[in-house]
Fold this protein.
Amino acid sequence: MARLEPHLHFSQESLQHIVRAIFTLQPGSIVTWQLLRHVLGLPADQARLVNARAALSGNQWVQQLVAEQLPDGSFGRFHSQDTQQKTIFRTSEQAIDRAFALGLEPNHPVLACMRSYIQLALQGQVHITDPDEKNEAWPLLIRLILAGRLAQIAPSDKLVVPFWQYLEEVTQSAFKSGSYQLEHEVEAYRRLSGVYVPKGFLESQHALWILSARPLTTPLESALVRWVLNKPDGIRYIRAPLQAPEPNRIGYWVRSMNLLSRFPAWQDLSLDILNQIWEQHDEQGWWDFGKQLGRCAEFPLSESWRYRIHRKMDHSTHMLVILRKCFL
């Protein structure tokens, strides 16, 4: 029994009831896959899941990722957009976000090739095409950005370990008073790398992917996750308030919560937020945050939003996936 169940406003059974209602409308392959794999949690060898995985290759959004991926495994620039290029995915990072939003697993060819590219970049065997930013910390930060994405795809990759060790020490310094202090984080980079990082980096998605790759001490992890959950502007590079999700930024909220859910402390610390999200479903048990969404990787999942029901399916799928994490 999941440790939070007595305090939640929902149960696994209530989530499964909504899934069954969605299946009666014959959703598309991405929604079907997400619900079977990440909400119902079917075993990998279960025939229904095997068939759903096979169907992904014919999905237009998966095919779009495959078609746009370059032979080296990247999608062009890694972190900074080239405004002169008209591409579907502005950066490799955006393509990674899209792949995870579609529910693709790390061993999917798109993510496996991306992992190999990042490994080679970290080892100095390939060079990303992003121009250097004009600050002394850029050589350090771009390696942390690369390592963060590697940790997102493959947290157990041995190349992640030294970056985790580095940021664990930074985190210890930043929270040594019991709460986060920017000046202590900045001092840690000076001490460890001799560079000035005036805005810090621990609030970034990249640092959080790295730090979630291995266990932190319970007090440190709790302090870190609590700090991020209560930041008015959320996680850097995602930027969505987490305590009171904004409907037009719900995709970014989804991405943030999926990231933080990799920390065990997330369950207890997010309890009120998750109950709040649960209460936002309609009488039929569906979620709909409207169609005026900021451009994000999380939507759409269905092949068309011509009909409102497909939008509701997509919103509901993301909510169900997050709520299901309470029972893992």
